[in-house]
Each structure stands twice: as structure tokens, then as C-alpha cells.
What we know:
- The structure is a single chain.
- By secondary structure, this protein is α/β, with parallel strands linked by helices.
- It folds into 2 domains: about 170 residues, no CATH class; about 80 residues, 3-Layer(aba) Sandwich (Oxidized Rhodanese, domain 1), CATH 3.40.250.
Amino acid sequence: MVEKLCYTCENDQVQLITLYYNGMKINTLLEKADDSIPMWFKKAGIYSPLPKALTCQSKYNPFKNKISNWKSDFPSQTGLKIKITPSTLKKMGYGQNQKYPRWMYFWASKHRDFNQVCPLDAEPAYGNFYNSGLVEINKDGNFIFNMYLPTPYLVDGIMYTPHLHLAFLGKDRVWQVNTWTITIFPHLLRDKVKELKNTRKYLFISDLADISHENIKAKVSQDKKLTKVFLEKNSILQVPIVLSGKDSYLCGDLLLKIGYTNLIYNLDKIN
């Protein structure tokens, strides 16, 4: 399994979780982040592990805007609805001696453009942080929200999985700076997968036997478009890979272990 889901994530703390992706239960990954501030945040004028919305906007400050006035506030018409369940909160340490939090704020990179196969650096990938929102958690520990499918991006030349960050409001009414990261890999239906195949900008894998650096390089080298973008630029680990078949998740796990993070799942071919 990949060591880190994001730049500020803690090493060797990746956990397997399930969530609902447009109503379908899928496997994904969870990791705790530390309270460090990445340099790209500082260059963007953010001197906190949290985005500016939580540090600068009074509507998210419980001391300036009463919590009784709060309502869930996130993008609409995004094409992606996420549901996170109590089982994930329990892996974060909630639900036993510590009650479920009531409010969560999430942020992620901007909407993924599948015509753009070369990843952006972090700052342009997040843009104005429009892919974010405030979410109320119900008493049972479930929370549902809309978001855009996040784009993967680079930090110091390293590509991380597409993901979202979550911060929780503590019982002291202060936003916690130790946040959490959840990977959101695209899970696409047949028509969209067919579109990607027609672009010839994506590598398709359905066999466990193909999971090695050597085999992937060989497959990429057979396609002039992929070779020009990824082999000639020495960025083979950034190649977007579409996974199909009954072993899709196992293939994904093996690819993550050897450093491939730009994974896409064919939803019609997952058992």
C-alpha cells in the first residue's frame, strides 16, 4: 500500500475504509495528516494547515457566527455524491469514548479534467478552493455531501493520489488542525471509460500479471502518445491507469505499492 496519500500525511498510517460513491459502496484509503504547513500553502499566502475559509471567514467561526445558524454548505450539481459512515469515524477515534463530531469541513483540488493527463502543481490544482464545503454530521455518525471529482497533483515533483481533506470542529468549538485525508479515485461507467480509451492517453490494465514497472513501461512504449508524455519526460509513475476486471482493487493495491497513484476504476467491471 502507498506510504502517503498526501504531502502532509503521516507515514505508514494508511487504513483501508469503505464509503459510498454515488450510492455504490467502494474501497478506498484513509490517513491522518500532521499539522505542518506545506511550502506551497505559504507561497499562496496560507500560514495554517487549514484553508483560508476556516481561518478568515467569520461564517465558519463559531465565536462570530452561532453554530445554531450553521447549515451544510457545499457545491451542488457536481456529479459526485459521497457518503461517509460511522465505521470511518471510528477509525479516526470517534464513537467510543469520544462522541461523533457534529461538523466537518472538507476541501479538495478542483474538478478533474480527463482531457488533461499531465498533472498540475498543487497551487493551480486547488485554484480558489471552490471544491470545498461545510457538512453537518448526523447523530448516527453518517454524513453526505456533494463534491467535484478531485484532480491528482504534484508537490515537489511527486504525484499524490486524488483526495479530499477533512477537518472536524472540536467540542471546544475550535477547528482541529490535525486533519484527515481520504483518497477519491475515479470510478467511471462504461461510456466514460470508452471515451478515455478513444483518446489513447490512458493505459488499460485488467491482469495481475501486468503489474510491474517493466510491463508498464513496455505497454507505454507501444503507444506514441503515452511515450511522448510519460517516457520521454521520465514521469512513468504519473501515467493514468484504468483498471478493469474482478481483480481491479488488488491490481490497484499492487500499483500503489510500486508508486503508481493515478488510478481510475472501471465501475462496470468491478465485482
